[in-house]
Amino acid sequence: MVKSKGKSDITDQVSKFWTDFKVLFSDKLYAVNILGYIAYNFVIGAYSYWGPKAGYATYHMENADLMFGGVAIVCGIFGTLAGGLILDRMNSTISNAFEGPSTVSIHIFGDVPSSPLVGVVQDAVNNWRVTSLILTSVLFISSGLWSIELRKRSQTGTFQ
């Protein structure tokens, strides 16, 4: 019987992925940073999906989808420009940017599961104000994790 080359390639790729994953997450500052981004994207992902429905149900906004979309566009443009200016002032380089958070982890554990989970919470409590309060409280988790990272970086002097 001939061994499938495709299957061994996939096994090799999975093995390399887990090796890289272990190396990345052995850096505690990196891991804390990623966990903060996951919590942050969890909230952003859920609000992007459920925000208009919650706005309509809570405040009887006829144009909740237009309002949420407009806010997302304006904040996205402002945030992109402000972030670029801040990084320019920090003398950030492309190599520093690649030391940033793992996009795959952020999406797999952050914004992808957030919408269904918030739907389950809303089905259980049937109150958009309570659901929104619970969801927004997750932002405190991300800010707490980033505070830990900043404190550790200031103690070790690893700001670049």
TrEMBL record:
Membrane-related topology note: Multi-pass membrane protein
Alphabetized InterPro entries for the sequence: MFS_spinster-like, MFS_trans_sf, OATP
UniProt GO cellular component terms: membrane
Highest taxon listed in the record's lineage: Eukaryota
Pfam families found in the cross-reference section: OATP (PF03137)
Protein name from the UniProt record: Uncharacterized protein
Organism encoding this protein: Papaver atlanticum
Keyword Membrane among UniProt keywords: yes
GO biological process: transmembrane transport
Keyword terms: Disulfide bond, Membrane, Transmembrane, Transmembrane helix, Transport
SUPFAM superfamilies in alphabetical order: MFS general substrate transporter
Subcellular location: Membrane
Listed transmembrane segments: 29-50, 66-87
